[in-house]
Every structure is written in structure tokens, then in C-alpha cells.
# Entry
Amino acid sequence: MTDASTAALPATHPLADGRTAGSALVRALRGDRPETLPVWFMRQAGRSLPEYRDLRVGTAMLDACLDPAMASEITLQPVRRHGVDAGIFFSDIVVPIKLAGVDVEIVPGRGPVLGSPIRTVADVDALEALDPAALAPIAEAVAPTVAELGSTPLIGFAGAPFTLAAYLVEGGPSKDHIRARTLMHADPVTWSRLLAWAAGVSGTFLRAQVLAGASAVQLFDSWVGSLSREDYLTHVAPHSAEALSHVADLGVPRIHFGVGSGEVLRDMTTLGGDTVAVDAVGVDWRLPLDQAVERVGAGVTVQGNIDPAMLSAPWEVLEAHVRQVVRRGGAARAHVVNLGHGVPPETDPTVLTRVVELVHALGSGAEASA
# Structure
């Protein structure tokens, strides 16, 4: 778990100069229960917001991610509209692999698609390390965003090595990641080299965001639910640990989130070791938070886990669900309210604003554990 020290950060960083150190999000990630529960939403930047859709007209997704002014504006939009307790940097998990020279594009209605999948040792050997200088557009987007956010922290993020590798090997989205899991077992040496490369890319991406001003980071393992626990521990966890190690000296809180991760949730908090190695673990909608706490123990903050499907339910149904999530989250040392996955694009933005207002009205959530 990260130390609260920020000695390695630039003196002007929001954590180092105190702007975000006392924010509800940072306090909760470090194990405190602030007076008001912090809440933010995965995929809050974009998707459901009409102002986002208006801004994106005529601009491809990856072009938007690499336009510093546009990426900054999209990051700020949900903070202005909803009053959430953190911004999440607008980007995509494939941005750093594109900047490392991989031929990848995001195809509307499908997702990331590679020109040539990575399936042999020669393919892996041809991959180039991500040059930190290539991340200049990221720093150029983060800096003004952080300046406008003030005391509201920005969360940086990256895709976990397994999820990146799944896209690289499959060549695009996949329901079962058969090719990736086959490579893991058929050629474990090539697999390990591929994940080591992906860990370096993810870690470099995270570090650039933090040095530019992000006050926390989240590592997304979107496809971890396709793995057995043994496969996760043997072939994946060490590489996720390596990705997160790139920001360990910076003292920023680290969140680890995976979809369908119930069977490996404890292992995601320890990164395969014997002790808690991250500050918070994200829990998807399938596992009640109090049961998640039983699995991960008392030494980690939980994040989540409103069911995204509930956002389109009648308000009284959604409200009851949010209250139950907060009650169950009271079993943890601290709780960051979020969805159990991303905001569906058809979500009415006014519903998200009402959820934020409700969560804030519920106070610290401490009474739920009394």
C-alpha cells in the first residue's frame, strides 16, 4: 500500500502543495472516513453527456484523446455538471500502446482493433518501449485540467497488462479471450515477455499522468474475470504489480479494479503477495460490498458498486439500491461510491446528478457499520 509521503512529487503537485491532500477522495483512499462519502463514476467523462457528444462531432475517439484541449474539457464536464468528488482523465487504455507505435484504432460500435495481432515471439520482440516523450499530449491535457479542478483530485488510469495483452493477441474485442489464454499456456515465455512490455507501457502512462498532476491512479483489468485464480496468480498478478510499481515512489493512492473479479479480488489487493499492496479495490456489481470486505480484509478501501443497470430503473428503485450499497460499504475501513462498471451511454445525466446528491446527503456512511 502506498505511503502518504509525496516527497518524490513536484512541489507544485496538488498533493504536495495541499490542494487535494484533504479531499474526500484522497482521505477515503488512504483509509479515513470523511464527513461526506466521496463519489465518482467510471466512464463519467463522455458517453452520456450531450455536451460531450456535441464536442466530439467529427473527431475520432483516439484523436480526441490526443487533443489536449479537448481531453481536458471532456474530463471537466462531469465535474461541473454532477459535482462528483474526482475527475477521471479522459483517455483510453489503448492510447499508450498507440503512442508506442502499435497500429490500433477504435472502431465505432466495436472497440479497439489492431492492424496486426501480436501472437509470436517475433511479434513481441518487434514492439518498442513507450518513450515518455511521446506522452507530451497527455501532460499537456492534465496540467490545465488540474489547474481548473483546484481542490478536486484528478484520477489517472491505465489498462492492466492482461487486458492490454488480451486486445493485442485477439486483435480486437473478444468475449472469451481464447487466443490470449491459449498463448498464456502454449508459450508462457512469449506471454511473459508480452505482459512485461504491457506493464512497462501501462506504468509509464500512469507515471506521466501523476507527474503532470493526477492525485490518484486506477489500474483497470477489464477482462480479468475470464481467468482462473491459478492463472491470475501465475501469469498476470506479477505484471500488474510491475505496472503499479511505476508510481510507488510518488506516494499517490492506487486503486485496482477488475470486471468479474470476485474469485481473485483478494489477490488483486495483494498483487499476488501476502499483504495489501494497493489502497483501494474496485468491486463490480456482482458481489455485495460487505462480502467483498470479507474477502479482502479490513486493510483496504472498497470502491463501488452501484449496478449500472439500475441507472435506468425508476428513481425509488435506484435510491433504495444506492442506500443499500452505502450500508454494505460501511463494513470497510472506507468507501468510495462508484458504479460496478462504467456509465452506460444511454444514461440520463440528471440521474447521475441525483445519485451524487443522495450519496452526499447520506454523510460519511459510518453509521452503516455501527
